[in-house]
## 1
Amino acid sequence: MTGSRAKVRNRQARATALVEVLHRTYPDAHCELDFTNPLELLVATILSAQCTDKRVNIVTKDLFRRCRTARDYAEIAQEELERLIQSTGFFRAKAKNIRACCAALVAHHGGTVPRTMEALTQLAGVGRKTANVVLGNAFDENVGVVVDTHVARLSQRLGLTRETTPEKIEQNLMVLIPRAQWTLFSHWLIWHGRRRCTARKPDCPGCEVALLCPSAGKFQ
Ligand code: SF4
């Protein structure tokens, strides 16, 4: 067997074992943004760029009371929306995108959130990552793998990819991880990245997947 084939086999074996251990470690992993319907999750995910889920959840408590439908977002004044979401950062661009996105929902989708990657990524402020979050968590559709900063960092540390762009990392993960687990897998990595394998100070001695991790101990 050539070296590169052996590496691919190792990578696949590691991914399969990781799915098992992470599932056991985080049986309750879920999206940490609060939402009760696809529209709320779409808006919360747009707000979560460069912001913590905790802060988004504080902001959406009032926001979701003020705006209940896509038309509400399309018709709210830019200034009022900016005021409501200010503390999430980049609030001017986010307010503009949310209003434009929801205007398109009203104009082209009867005010509802579409369930396809193609339609979602045509909306203002919605890239592949946001679309994957909505499809996976609001519609239970595994269309891709959410690659945020935690998923990117952990996929590299765990030796699942050598790529650096979210698009290419996602392509690698879609080959290694069974489709039924694409949404859960990104939750597991996000939870592990927040609780154990942080960017600055990974806790390798206490890590549940250390035996599977080629980076174990490299940071001590
Ligand atoms: S062993 Fe260390 S680097 Fe590897 S996943 Fe665990 S905490 Fe992260």
## 2
Amino acid sequence: MRAIDHGLGCCPTCHQIVRFPTRTEGAVTALCPRCGSEVHPRKPGAIQNTWALVLASILFYIPANLLPMMHVHTFAGTQSDTIMSGVIYFMETGSYLIGSVIFIASIFVPVLKILILIYLLLSVQRGWAGRYHERKRLYQLTELVGRWSMVDVYVVSIMIALVHFGGLTEIKAGLGAVFFLLVVVVTMFAAMQFDPRLIWDPPKETHARHP
Ligand SMILES: [Zn+2]
């Protein structure tokens, strides 16, 4: 039994329980009697907004991987590295741990997060029943990853710090780092925009609210 079935909702600001004026679930809005915030049975436009942010993060992911992450200036010349060429460099020089950390944080995790969000969006949009527990855990995983997403950003700083030990070198972040930061931030917002309560809504209702 869901709060929505009783015409009840929860204020997003102060968590006051709010009664909706009607039991129809279309575009119902109520005002919180305690703090005056707008209360909706589900996050308005959750599916559309999450899709938009997921697509944006896919677009940003391409230049993040293709453009140089950093430029290293030494007396011997300038070397530019993408994420993948950095990973290959560390693997070839025997730094398997650093190579693996960069690969997992920068290449594997963003792709995993994007794929999970696409799966959750499709499952909710198509009104798939079942696998509730599994989908809930996948959603929690994206939240957990969100909390650790900044690790990806630190990877660049760590790489810069590591190379600084060499001395006589100058390192500048490349344009790839900017797009990479965008991927991290945009996927974080995408996970926040998704409304996990949609997972348990029957298919008919989901379609009625999101035609
Ligand atoms: Zn309130």
